């Protein structure tokens, strides 16, 4: 099994053979941060690198990145964010054009949300159906093939494919398959329109890896599906409700969406413990995606404990030495090898083994 190969050591996530080097003229510096337990921490984040923020629990990682750096950057770039934690300065903001936080929260709270809608692929798929001979003869436009719009959807379930039973006190809501459309979300007239013998409902039921070849002649759709497949989500069905997905799956859909976009190479991506709940092989795929984003000139900052991630970073900022009142100091900064070579920090002690250092 794949799990067994990793547990036995026959499969491993390799240490990069070469690390990107920090450019002295390109960095973001946040100065004298005192959020929560941080003790006048000034931290420099070199741009266009894969950066890990490490340290024991309670050392101040989230206080530095999530509560101070992220909202401060977003506000300076004209976005809406909570008030950042106390700090005296922020330099280098003009070198990035946006900040994107990618977490494991659901893509949406509604059963209507899925990989196809979130990535925008469904907009293009609906255009494909609207361009068929049958759709043109019937006067159907692209919105006819949306389960969010009256006209083409099943009105019994309003395009959700399921119906909620009467609420019962003290029990969670119970959903059953819609008896009219049998979970297909659309009415009979809409389902009668076919592309390559498949209805819009059939297409939504395709696994992403099958949809990839089905839409090979449509570059806009193919690009998105390729990104989803590349992050290891080929098994997901295009229309699978986001409410049935794990946090790791939701996060990888968000990453795939970013991969499929044309960017300026000046984006800062922030992730908080992205490996939570992921299998070893999923971590390998996640690292591949992050490295690809950084290869395009972007910057990725991850708060992480996982040594497989930390050993693959270009640069580490290690906080500590302990948690709570005994934490809140920046105790090491540099490549994983440089951090591992320093005495007196827990991260370095464990990294030495992961990096094969004595």
Characterize the structure shown.
With 358 residues, the chain is of the alpha/beta class. It has 14 helices and 11 strands. A hairpin with a 7-residue loop joins strand 1 (27-33) and strand 2 (41-46). The longest helix has 16 residues, at 61-76. The mean pLDDT is 90.
Summarize the topology.
Elements: H1 2-8, E1 27-33, E2 41-46, E3 50-55, H2 61-76, E4 89-91, E5 98-101, H3 115-119, H4 121-130, H5 133-138, E6 162-164, E7 175-177, H6 188-191, H7 200-204, H8 208-214, H9 219-230, H10 247-260, E8 267-272, H11 280-295, E9 299-303, H12 307-310, E10 315-320, E11 329-334, H13 336-341, H14 346-354
Parallel strand pairs: 3-9, 3-10, 5-8, 8-9
Antiparallel strand pairs: 1-2, 1-4, 6-7, 10-11
Rg over CA atoms, rounded to whole Å, is 24 Å
Mean pLDDT across every amino acid position: 90
Profile the largest sheet: 6 strands, mixed
The number of strands is 11
Give the fraction of residues assigned to helices. 25-40%
Q: What topology, given as strand order, has the largest sheet?
A: 5-8-9-3-10-11
| Order of helix and strand elements from N to C terminus | HEEEHEEHHHEEHHHHHEHEHEEHH
Could you tell me how far the N terminus lies from the C terminus, measured between alpha carbons in angstroms? 31 Å
- Basic shape: elongated
Strand content: 15-25%
Number of helices: 14
Structural class: alpha/beta
Query: In terms of per-residue confidence, which ranges show pLDDT below 50 for 5 or more consecutive residues?
Result: none
């Amino acid at each position: 099994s794949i799990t067994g190969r990793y547990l036995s050591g026959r499969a491993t996530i390799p240490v990069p053979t070469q690390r990107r080097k920090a450019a002295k003229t390109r960095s973001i510096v946040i100065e004298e941060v005192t959020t929560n337990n941080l003790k006048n921490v000034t931290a420099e984040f070199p741009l266009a690198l894969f950066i890990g923020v490490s340290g024991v629990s309670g050392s101040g990682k989230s206080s530095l990145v999530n509560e101070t750096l992220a909202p401060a950057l977003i506000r300076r770039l004209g976005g809406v964010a909570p008030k950042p934690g106390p700090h005296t300065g922020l330099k280098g903001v003009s070198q990035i054009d946006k900040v994107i936080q990618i977490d494991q929260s659901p893509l949406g709270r509604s059963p209507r949300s899925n990989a196809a809608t979130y990535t925008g692929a469904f907009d293009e798929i609906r255009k494909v159906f609207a361009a068929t001979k049958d759709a043109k003869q019937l006067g159907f436009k692209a919105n006819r093939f949306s389960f969010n719009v009256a006209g083409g959807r099943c009105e019994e379930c309003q395009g959700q494919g399921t119906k909620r039973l009467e609420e019962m006190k003290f029990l969670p809501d119970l959903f059953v398959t819609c008896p009219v459309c049998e979970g297909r979300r659309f009415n009979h007239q809409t389902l009668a329109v076919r592309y390559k013998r498949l209805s819009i409902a059939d297409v939504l039921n395709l696994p992403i890896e099958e949809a990839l070849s089905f839409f090979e002649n449509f570059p806009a759709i193919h690009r998105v599906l390729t990104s989803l497949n590349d992050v290891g989500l080929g098994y997901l069905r295009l229309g699978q409700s986001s409410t049935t997905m794990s946090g790791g799956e939701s996060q990888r859909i968000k990453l795939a969406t970013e991969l499929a976009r044309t960017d300026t190479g000046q984006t800062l991506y922030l992730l908080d413990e992205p490996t939570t709940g992921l299998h070893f092989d999923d971590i390998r795929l996640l690292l591949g995606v992050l490295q690809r984003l950084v290869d395009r000139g972007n910057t990725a900052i991850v708060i992480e404990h996982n040594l497989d991630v930390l050993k693959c970073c270009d640069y580490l900022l290690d906080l500590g030495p302990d948690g709570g009142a005994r934490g809140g100091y920046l105790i090491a900064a540099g490549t994983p090898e440089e951090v591992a070579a320093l005495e007196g920090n827990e991260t370095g002690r464990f990294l030495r083994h992961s990096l094969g250092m004595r």
